[in-house]
């Protein structure tokens, strides 16, 4: 009781003293600058303060006023004007912050860039903006102040500028497909629609995605194949291939709209509603620090100032700081947040590169194809044609049918393929998909057999014997044995008929040309996992936490799953009154994703090893690999389980 009375007296004393100091400082500063020699003092003060700015010192109230004071003498600037300028400079807003679990009143100057926020997101890519959008859409987290930092100066372009660019693009060129795409699973699509405020509906309107209801993979060296269909998982589709730019633009539209409304309110002087979203493009993180007892993590960043809308001129960089109760690292595998926070990553380079490009097909398809070559897989993914960007009155038949290529191969071969002309690139991809030219491994295999080159011949003969002769004899023996018992025979036949259902092979469409105006490039493939995904008021999501092989098309889906788990952890913390950056919140996020992420990473890495160039050069292994693919394609329950696992591998279900 005595302690509470003492604290009340302390708060009353501090409030009274603050008011008195403010009044005294205002009178003294105004008299100083309006007196004789005041101009010289202001000039001298400015020169000293500029030198001190090198230490990244924050300016005080007096400094802000003196920097806003006219540098040259003006007879019209009176004492009354000086007092008015000082009062507007020292205008303060009452903000409530949590410090050591207790609410404390502090004062903060009005500024377009806040000094403290609840959540700071470093990285404005797909996963980063998805996290920001989910925070703004959730009823439990929409009150949190959020800042998104991205190194691209044009990461959050104005809506009016985007519309002008789209109109100009419609006049010049209807549609230029992008090289980087993502295969979104049904659960990722539900996440974008449900948790991100109808983002998927916006993406569908662009017609920059194409759904597929089947996935077919086959071995170019052996004779095995496997086909997964959506109907086996009781779904209408297995996924949709969408351009990354289309997904990110749809996620950013809502954020940019809210940010622009906040700016308009500030310009009009409407301060009733406090701004809670800040988009900071052109920022690069240069440091971060916190302590165990601190309620904030400080992020130091360089912000390029200037008019980016014009796209010209040089920009000066100044170091600023922003404090957040929770910092989210979404800045990629080589991001600054991991580096400055001291979080190490482990993994290895696959010594491969993935060539990305867009080709034109001779017919439509709703199947995603993948052929395993000796140096790595090549994937053919159907994508949209961008019809809505031109005219909705034109028939679909007048638009070309596009597909995206993701070709994993050696770095030297990737450079050669990337440098090919458009015609040669289309021809090379068509041969790789259909097994023509140098990619006809079966022809080479037959030539080896005809010339009686015995290279692992015993192993080949034995594996083929196991696959063909022994299996047939064993099945005939089982049927003859069961024939003695007619009831058991009928049950066994019924089980076998329902279990052994093989999906038929679909021939992929022909590649007739490279898409006009399309991009082409190659990026290195590696496995990279962060040693820890949480660290003192910081959590990592997306590629900042894990980089996997694109073999299974699960990269961005794993990122969206991180976002769902992180949002769930933050909502739970708010529901129980806990700090959103506490160790309990970070632990809940880490535990929710550990087993699932580990299983996915190990599974994709194992597939890369099985179908990689090292084991593909071993003839007996390729035969056993083909037998395994045929077995999976023949056994319906196994095939259905894999289909459901892949389709449900997108995001975390919220109950």
Q: Which key features would you list for this structure?
A:
seven-stranded mixed β-sheet, 655 residues, 45% helix, nine-stranded mixed β-sheet, alpha+beta
Task: Give a quick summary of the entry.
The protein is α+β, with helices and mostly antiparallel strands and 655 residues long. The protein is 45% helix and 22% strand.
Task: Describe the secondary-structure layout.
Blueprint: H1 2-34, H2 38-52, H3 61-68, H4 79-89, E1 92-99, E2 102-109, E3 116-122, H5 126-137, E4 146-149, H6 159-172, E5 181-184, H7 186-194, H8 199-206, E6 209-212, E7 214-219, E8 225-229, E9 239-243, H9 244-267, E10 277-280, E11 283-289, E12 297-305, E13 316-329, H10 336-341, E14 345-361, E15 367-372, E16 377-382, E17 401-409, H11 411-418, H12 422-434, H13 441-450, H14 457-482, H15 486-499, E18 511-514, E19 521-530, E20 538-540, E21 546-547, H16 555-575, H17 583-610, H18 613-616, H19 619-634, H20 636-647
Parallel strand pairs: 3-4, 3-13, 4-10, 7-15, 13-20
Antiparallel strand pairs: 1-2, 5-9, 6-9, 7-8, 11-12, 12-13, 14-17, 14-18, 14-19, 15-16, 16-17, 19-21
Helix pairs in contact: 1-4, 5-9, 5-16, 8-9, 14-19, 16-17
């Amino acid at each position: 009781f005595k302690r509470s009375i003492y604290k009340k007296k302390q708060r009353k004393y501090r409030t009274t003293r603050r008011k008195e100091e403010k009044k005294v400082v205002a009178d003294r500063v105004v008299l100083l600058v309006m007196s004789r020699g005041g101009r010289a003092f202001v000039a001298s003060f400015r020169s000293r303060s500029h030198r001190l700015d090198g230490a990244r010192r924050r300016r005080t109230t007096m400094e802000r006023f003196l920097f806003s004071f006219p540098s040259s003498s003006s007879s019209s600037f009176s004492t009354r004007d000086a007092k008015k300028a000082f009062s507007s400079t020292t205008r303060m807003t009452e903000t409530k912050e949590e410090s050591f679990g207790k609410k404390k009143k502090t004062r903060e100057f009005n500024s377009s860039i806040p000094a403290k926020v609840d959540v700071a997101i470093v990285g404005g890519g797909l996963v980063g903006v998805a996290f920001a959008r989910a925070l703004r859409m959730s009823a439990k987290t929409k009150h949190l102040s959020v800042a998104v930092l991205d190194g691209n100066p044009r990461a959050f372009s104005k809506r009016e500028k985007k519309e002008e660019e789209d109109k100009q693009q419609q006049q010049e060129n209807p549609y230029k497909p992008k090289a980087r795409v993502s295969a979104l699973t049904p659960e990722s699509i539900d996440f974008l629609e449900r948790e991100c405020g109808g983002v998927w509906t916006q993406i569908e309107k662009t017609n920059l995605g194409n759904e597929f209801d089947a996935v077919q993979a086959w071995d170019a060296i052996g004779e095995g194949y496997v086909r997964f269909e959506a109907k086996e998982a009781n779904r209408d589709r297995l996924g949709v291939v969408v351009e990354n730019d289309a997904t990110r633009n749809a996620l950013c539209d809502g954020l940019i709209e809210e940010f622009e409304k906040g700016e308009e309110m500030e310009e009009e002087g409407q301060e009733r509603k406090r701004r809670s979203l800040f988009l900071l493009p052109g920022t690069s993180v240069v440091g971060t620090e916190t302590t165990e007892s601190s309620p904030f993590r400080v992020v130091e960043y360089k912000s390029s100032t200037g008019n980016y809308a014009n796209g010209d001129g040089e920009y000066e960089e100044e170091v600023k700081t922003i404090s957040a109760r929770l910092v989210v690292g979404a800045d990629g595998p080589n991001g600054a947040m991991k580096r400055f926070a001291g979080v190490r990553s482990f993994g290895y380079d696959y010594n491969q590169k993935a060539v990305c490009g867009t080709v034109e097909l001779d017919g439509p398809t709703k199947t995603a194809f993948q052929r395993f070559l000796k140096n790595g897989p090549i994937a053919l993914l159907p994508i949209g044609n961008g019809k809505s960007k031109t005219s909705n009155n034109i028939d679909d038949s007048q638009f070309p049918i596009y597909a995206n290529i993701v070709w994993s191969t050696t770095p030297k071969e990737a450079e050669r393929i990337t440098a090919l002309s458009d015609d040669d690139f289309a021809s090379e991809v068509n041969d790789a998909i259909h097994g023509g030219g140098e990619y006809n491994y079966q022809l080479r295999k037959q030539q080896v057999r005809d010339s009686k080159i015995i290279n692992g011949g015993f192993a080949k003969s034995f594996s083929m014997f196991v696959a063909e002769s022994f299996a047939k004899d064993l099945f005939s023996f089982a049927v003859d044995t069961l024939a003695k018992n007619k009831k058991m025979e009928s049950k066994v036949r019924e089980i076998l008929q329902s279990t052994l259902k093989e999906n038929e092979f679909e021939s992929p469409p022909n590649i007739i040309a490279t898409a006009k105006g399309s991009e082409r490039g190659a990026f290195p493939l590696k496995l990279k996992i962060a040693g820890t995904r949480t660290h003192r008021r910081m959590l990592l999501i997306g590629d900042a936490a894990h980089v996997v092989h694109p073999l299974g098309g699960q990269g961005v889906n794993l990122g969206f799953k991180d976002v769902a788990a992180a949002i769930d952890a933050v909502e739970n913390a708010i529901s129980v009154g806990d700090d959103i950056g506490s160790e309990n919140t970070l632990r809940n996020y880490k535990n929710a994703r550990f087993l699932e992420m580990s299983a996915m990473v190990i599974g994709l890495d194992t597939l890369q090893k099985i179908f990689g160039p090292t084991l593909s050069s071993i003839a007996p292994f390729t035969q056993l690999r083909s037998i395994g693919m045929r077995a999976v394609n023949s056994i319906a329950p196994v095939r259905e389980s894999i289909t459901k696992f892949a389709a449900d591998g997108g995001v975390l279900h919220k109950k």
